[in-house]
Design a protein that fits this description.
The complex is a heterodimer of chains A (about 160) and B (about 150).
Chain A: E1 7-11, H1 16-32, E2 35-42, H2 44-52, H3 58-85, E3 91-96, H4 99-109, E4 114-118, H5 128-131, H6 133-140, E5 144-148, H7 151-160
Parallel strand pairs in A: 1-2, 1-4, 2-3, 4-5
Helix pairs in contact in A: 1-3, 1-7, 2-3, 4-6
Chain B: H1 3-6, E1 12-13, H2 21-34, H3 41-54, E2 63-64, E3 67-69, E4 77-87, E5 97-105, H4 110-123, H5 127-134, H6 139-147
Parallel strand pairs in B: 1-4, 2-5, 3-5
Antiparallel strand pairs in B: 4-5
Helix pairs in contact in B: 2-3
The chains are: A alpha/beta (about 160), B alpha/beta (about 150).
Chain lengths: ~160, ~150
């Protein structure tokens, strides 16, 4: 049987959990030979909502958008370095908009076989289910999803990669 | 980090005792100092006041969401204050503010900061939710309301 996973996308959101997910994705790409994309979404939808609600000022929105662009660059570069250290190629990709919608759209456009995400926060509120962007993306994407857990184990696996 | 992870009994105060805007900003920052969440009261207050000087974060229907980026914090911080009597906060609709959310973030945490503020913005769109929080008798009840218990 041919390798069913030819293209992997790992979602990076700046959390430690997403960096762990990236380490796992790098290992998996190395073992499987799959193409790997690291993906970050600048949540402009939330910023527009904050502007509409008058919580943000126009110049504040612009400032935060620049901050988020810098975050995106920083984290994607970091993941790129993690992959380079292990001799794995990684494509950095960024978009802007509503996080879960952008993830769903990119999974389709890139014909992703496997979406990898970091461990989700434990559900402590019924409202979390509605507001967690990653969880919404997981429910809506048209590909298989892998949730990475156990930071220490993943770190060991990443470190032991040749 | 989910919003609920930021909501702790120790960082909720009912009732706020302030009578005006400068006082309530100080009282909200002090909640975080007392809870051991921040140590540099002056630096945080200065950042919060600078943001308020641009335009009040007193919104409509009794809700205010003062917020700022500050080097004095390394992770997201949230204090909730409730003033059932209402406090003049120069709100957009001219009404007294009763429910205050003070949100602080490190300048390097724009994403989580925006996400948390957006979650609060969604929640306070519900009048019923705001009324329930404002009517809470203690911090434990506020946490329960946010959990949806």
């Amino acid at each position: 049987m041919a390798n069913p996973i030819k293209k992997i996308m790992v979602y990076i959101d700046g959390t430690e959990q997403s960096v762990t997910a990236a380490q796992y994705a790098i290992c998996l790409a190395s073992f499987s030979g799959a193409e790997l994309i690291a993906y970050y979404v600048i949540n402009t939808r939330a910023m527009e909502d904050l502007l509409k609600a008058r919580i943000f000022l126009q110049d504040e929105q612009i400032e935060y958008e620049h901050d988020m662009e810098a975050d995106s660059e920083r984290y994607l570069n970091y993941v790129h370095q993690l992959a380079a250290k292990k001799g794995v190629s990684i494509i950095k990709k960024q978009s802007r908009g509503s996080v879960h919608r952008e993830i769903v759209k990119t999974v389709d456009e890139e014909e992703i076989d496997l979406l990898i995400v970091g461990e989700l926060s434990r559900i402590r509120s019924r409202r979390d289910e509605f507001y967690d962007e990653t969880e919404q993306a997981m429910r809506m994407v048209n590909c298989s999803v892998l949730i990475v857990k156990d930071e220490d184990k993943v770190w060991e696996m990443y470190e032991s990669l040749g | 980090m989910a919003l609920i992870d930021l909501i702790k009994e120790e960082t909720i105060k009912i009732p706020l005792v302030s009578n005006d805007k400068p006082e309530v900003l100080r009282e909200l920052v002090q909640i975080l100092v007392d809870a051991g969440e921040i140590s540099d009261f002056d630096a945080v207050l200065k950042s919060v006041q600078e943001r308020e000087d641009k335009q009040s974060t007193g919104l409509e229907e009794g809700v205010a969401i003062p917020h700022c980026k500050s080097d004095a914090v390394s992770t997201l911080k949230l204090a909730i204050g409730i003033a059932p009597q209402g406090i003049d906060f120069n709100s957009l609709d001219g009404k007294q503010s009763k429910l205050f959310f003070l949100m602080l973030a490190s300048p390097k945490q724009a994403g989580p900061h925006v996400q948390a503020l957006a979650e609060i913005a969604k929640l306070v769109r519900s009048k019923a939710f705001c009324n329930a929080v404002i009517s809470a008798e203690n911090a434990q009840q506020v946490v329960e309301i946010f959990r949806g218990d």
